[in-house]
Specification:
This protein is mostly loops. The protein has a domain of 74 residues: Alpha-Beta Plaits (2-Layer Sandwich). It contains one helix and four strands. A hairpin with an 8-residue loop joins strand 2 and strand 3. The longest helix is centred in the first third of the chain and has 5 residues. The chain binds iron/sulfur cluster (2 copies).
Length: 111
């Protein structure tokens, strides 16, 4: 399990939680409008929760349903997209099958 930062942090981003995290796993970037918890590093100690002035931090299994998208990313900025500030979808976008660039059309019907 991990703890998750949800929507109330957006725009507040005061860093109080990061100041008390014993394993320094709460991060942000200048471009992001909130902080994120690295799920690989979080030890579930709960120390960050009472520090938040807007009650934005929840254990993953207690996250309110309306904020589930804050859990349904692969670690937010810690996912494959890196620390970009943009949530990363858990599933990759489907292939659109455009074929090989520069390949000849399959028949004269396409000329
Ligand atoms: S629960 Fe503990 S380890 Fe996890 S982010 Fe909060 S302070 Fe850090
Ligand atoms: S203490 Fe709360 S509002 Fe402040 S950065 Fe952490 S999660 Fe966001």
């Amino acid at each position: 399990m991990t703890y998750v930062i949800a929507e109330p942090c957006v725009g507040v981003k005061d860093g109080s939680c990061a100041d008390v995290c014993p394993v320094d796993c709460i991060h942000t970037t200048p471009d992001a409008d909130m902080y994120f918890i690295d799920p690989e590093e979080c030890t579930d100690c709960g120390a960050c929760v009472p520090q938040c002035p807007v009650a934005a931090i929840y254990p993953e299994d207690e996250l309110p349903r309306e904020w589930s998208r804050f859990r349904d990313v692969d670690g937010g900025p810690f996912g494959p997209g890196g620390l970009s500030g943009a949530p990363v979808p858990r599933r990759p976008m489907p292939s659109v099958g455009l074929g090989e660039i520069g390949a000849e059309p399959p028949s004269d019907n396409f000329r």
